[in-house]
Amino acid sequence: MINILRQHIPFLFMVLLAQPAFSADIQEKSILPTAEIQSFVETFETIREGYVEVLSDEDILNKALKGMVSGLDPHSEYFTKSELVDFNELTSGNYAGIGVEVEMRDNHLIIVTPVDASAAAEAGILPGDVIIKIDNTLITDLGMQDIVTLMRGEIGTTVTLDIERDGEVKHYELIRRLVEDESVTEKWLDDGIAYFRLSQFQGDSASEFYQSIDKLEQERTIKGVVLDLRNNPGGVLQSAVGVVDAFIDKGMIVYTNGRHEMSKGQFMATKENTKLGTVPLVVLVNEGSASASEIVAGALQDHQRAVILGTETFGKGSVQTVVPLSNGDAVKLTTALYYTPNGRSIQAQGITPDLVVPQATLTFEKGQFFIKEAELKGHLDNGTGGKERTSADVKSDISELAQTDFQLFQAITILKTLPKLVQKQ
Fold first, then answer.
1. Which of the following is catalytic: 228, 245, 302, 329?
2. Distance between CA atoms of residues 113 and 179, nearest Å
3. Total-model pTM
4. 39 to 36, 43, 70, 187: CA distances (angstroms)
């Protein structure tokens, strides 16, 4: 046993002593548990000598480190050098794959959201779907990085997914392609209502959002805003803060709290960045809205600045910090929790909308028939020159948007009503 310890402990100590920048105080206070480390080394040697397949020392150690970190929570991970490069590509918004955000929950691989315009989204994969198998590999007991590796690959290659939804297993065959996710898109709806879609929060999303506002304001006055955060898995905290700052000019936006001083922080609104401080606002969220998108919805809700509409959000309210290690690897570690301005924790709870509106399709029942006054023979004219409306006009107004996006239809209806309510107060 002494020889084993002499052979392996120096390298093990090098890894165990690689301390994050925020934990100098821990290095001074803690004493390494010798008995536990001896158990680790004994287990290491047992695997090295007796496992059915030959594994290198590096392989065994990487598996041990990955298990130690991933066992903490679904969001903490250990990255080797090559995996860290892949992770940085994913967070940049440009990568080759099928375009899904996933979370491991109770040993189930859950799709948080498909990325807009990705192969997964176009195939009809939905938030909440459970991935059972990738190609011919069951995901049971796989680490998150192994799962990402299986789903990614060369552009033009095929990957198959077996997905469980509502008790049924569906089979999907997807072609990998470059996922170029523009985080902000904008367009006009009607009656001066601006629509902004944020698919995720990348490093430059806040500046893109401000550019989108300027673009529309050059065309006409913005009288109302729909901010669509549905199926937005989150991303960079500072970008989420910047988006909120466009709508409020003072007060807390979000604060974080963890064990160490560097995990504690607060983000405040500023007058300089407020562009739409008084414009009526509806924020759309659903079960695929997570992390940074929940921060935006929670802050605007606490400030009573917006009507939050849709369904309850995902509930990912933890902060991850990527900590580089001395050997070039890194640990993505959960270091804090997010809190809304009123002190609400998002973690494992999510944001409950002010108006709970499930996605639905509004249709007329077959055989339904009604008429309006304008369709009666010999009816009187409007009297003030107003346009007559028939039953066909009513069906057209309701069906076009309601059939494709009922939640957005409701958001527009509310925005058209809000200015009138404000004027009466």
1. 302
2. 14
3. 0.76
4. 5, 6, 20, 61
Beta carbons of 34 and 40 less than 8 angstroms apart: no
d(CA 299, CA 287): 18
Rounded CA separation 12/16 (Å): 6
CA distance 219 to 198: 21
Catalytic residue status for 212: no
DSSP one-letter string for 192-257 = TEEEEEE--B-TTHHHHHHHHHHHHHTTS---EEEEE-TT---B-HHHHHHHHHTT-SSSEEEEEE
Which of 76, 212, 239, 291 is catalytic? The answer is 291
The answer to whether residue 166 is catalytic is: no
More confident residue, 292 or 7: 292
Question: Is 291 one of the catalytic residues?
Answer: yes
Higher pLDDT, 263 or 181: 263
SS3 content of the chain, % helix, strand, coil (to 5): 35, 25, 40
Q: Which residues of 161-185 are buried (b: 16+ CB within 10 A; e: fewer)?
A: bbbeeeeeeeebebebeebebebbe
Has residue 129 got a pLDDT over 70? yes
Which tokens is 322 given? 């990527």
What does the pLDDT look like over 235-257, one tens digit per residue? 889 999 999 999 999 999 999 99
Identify the active-site residue in 239, 316, 329, 332. Answer: 316
Phi, psi dihedrals of residue 228, rounded to the nearest 5°: -95, 110
